[in-house]
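Thread: "does anyone have the structure for this chain?"

Original post by V.I.:
We have the sequence but no experimental structure in hand. Need at least a predicted one for the grant figures.
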Amino acid sequence: MSLDWLAISEEVREALSAGRPVVALESSLIAQGLPVPHNLETARAAEAAVREAGAVPATTALEDGRLIVGADDALLERLGDPEREVAKGASRDIGPLLASRRLASTTVSATMRAAHLAGIGVFATGGIGGVHRGASEGFDVSSDIDELAATPVAVICAGAKSILDLPATLELLETRRVPVVGYGTHELPAFYSTSSGLRLPHRVDSPRAAAATIAAHRSIPGAGGLLLVQPPPADLALDRAEVDGWIREALVDAERAGISGGAVTPHLLGHLARASGGRTLRVNIGLIVANARLGGRVASALT
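Reply from O.Q.:
Generated one for you, tokens below.
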């Protein structure tokens, strides 16, 4: 089957053909996740970290009816331009966005799908989506969970975003048969914090051990994705109780203001940035780059 809309850059294509390590990177952090100028600076730093670890970065996006794997710097700049209307594409949106030929970033689920289509087995990001707080009433669960269950890509991250219901997210990952493996930890990281208090059944302590675990998982017929989670950099990590207090304040504020649905997450993140004096932004940037570096090391060990 010919996927003429799948545009893999020459560098990425040559690396894959030669069996060299490649790491997929998402682009929603550029268009929607981080403020200017941190968005482009962080994206470039993540790509540099992958290269320093001996692998080739492959940032994904959509433009002009193509799903691009290996965005060039000019495309990164277009994604980060606040004057442009950049759509946010999850895996469910790929078809409509291809048809409309819109410029769009890729979230975790869309990047996983793009990576798999291109033949890339490792993807590094900040944190995944999961079960939102109050999901028992609104059924608000990220498509990242189902994508992890279905798509055989190893995702390296700092756990699920801490504004989510972390116990419910971990439980749903277990239900959907997604292995969650701690890198240097027995606990699920809480994104901004090193610990969530939620114990993990599996742990590895080196890129080689992580690669062996990923390879074994992939050898199982019908297996989907795997989540490799590492805590945020210790010198940047925040106290979990303090972060939880900010989140509770933000949720109360959102309810008072009548903010609901998709507008809640940006409201929460903005509140956290203000309440922390910018510390949550620094942690976010630090863990994105650290995860990219680990992704390069693990991809190199896999090859």
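V.I.: this helps a lot. The longest strand covers residues 56-63.
O.Q.: and The chain is about 45% helix and 15% strand.
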